[in-house]
Amino acid sequence: MSTPLADLPRETRAALNIRATAPGLLHLAGYLGAIMATGTLIVLQPPLWWLALPVHGVLIVFLFTLQHECTHRTPFASDRLCDLVGHVIGLVLLNPFLWFRPFHFAHHRHTNRPGDPELDGPLLETRAQWLWHISGIPYWRAQVALLIRLACGRETPSWLPAAMRSRAEREARVLLAIHALALLTLLWSPLVLWLWIVPCLLGQPALRLYLLAEHGDCPQVADMLQNTRTTFTARAVRALAWNMPYHAEHHLAPQVPFHRLPALHALIRDRLRVTAPGYAAFTRDYLARRR
To answer: pLDDT tens for residues 72-97?
Structure first.
């Protein structure tokens, strides 16, 4: 059976795969500008400044979607720039890049099936389990534990190549050292608390809700049109998530840069099998299946 991507003309597929640096840098500049704007409100503390905290946090934690793209080296034409951005975001989100890349590649090889490391977490069979998951607390606990295991040489999953393991372990030690120094600054300044820790705690639930829609309750089959969901949403949300709401499209063609996913979506929209008319609608349906 042919796939939507294979049915496209060769010239169209080639055009969709072309990487470019300018769109990624422009998008990143606007994104960082928004983070600087909310951060400035938090530092200056005008009336109602605390309303900026969750917005600032959502902007920070959704950098994960850019780090995810950097694993594929698609947001910029330069591999080095993709890797640099991926490492910096990994520092901010406690998600070491050299570990995350093979983790994510394993996810693509075994999407929503046995062997997918994303399925290693606990099942969300009740609303209480769902609530605990979206709180973000399990994520932060798991990431701290991961960094410690890596730093101590105790993280040895089958999908992490032995040749890469020592580099990933060194990266974890560097991240732990930098975070320890950042926490030490709390002895004389609250900036790390208000510009990073509190916002990230407040923003993480939004990312958890978003990520659930990508594969949550999709059939555990090999067909990318069934095991992955595309969510129709507002342009602002697509910008926040670097067009990853076009998620079935991304899994069908992970080599397509984020700025070309809307064009790919327009070409194959009629072939999509699993979609949601927004994240609120997905969440309502998801919870309706849990008691």
So the answer is: 999 999 999 999 999 999 999 999 99
Give residue 120's pLDDT band: very low, low, confident or very high (50, 70, 90): confident
The closest of 90, 106, 103, 99 to 150, measured between CA atoms, is 99
Closest by Cα among 260, 257, 239 to 29: 239
Report helix, strand or coil for 276: strand
Q: How far is CA 41 from CA 29, 197, 237, 269, in A?
A: 18, 16, 22, 40
Q: Phi, psi (5° rounding) for residue 231? A: -115, 125
**Which helix (H) or strand (E) is 136 found in, with range?**
none
The residue among 284, 266, 202, 272 whose CA lies nearest residue 16 is: 266
Q: Are 287 and 216 in contact (CB under 8 A)?
A: no
Q: Encode burial over 248-276: b for 16+ CB neighbours within 10 A, e otherwise.
A: bbbbbbeebbbbbbeebbebbeeebebeb
For the chain, list the strands marked E by DSSP. Answer: 230-231, 275-276
Given its phi and psi angles, is residue 45 left (phi above 0), alpha (psi -120 to 50 degrees) or beta?
left
Give residue 28's identity as a one-letter amino acid code.
L
Cβ–Cβ under 8 Å, residues 67 and 75: no
Pairing of strands 230-231, 275-276: parallel
Token pair recorded at residue 198: 């509190």
Question: Taking 60 as the threshold, does the pLDDT of residue 135 lie above it?
Answer: yes
C-alpha triplet 153, 157, 163: angle, nearest 5°: 65
**DSSP for residue 256:** S
State residue 291's pLDDT score. Answer: 77
Tokens of 96: 């070491």
Tell me if the pTM is above 0.85: yes
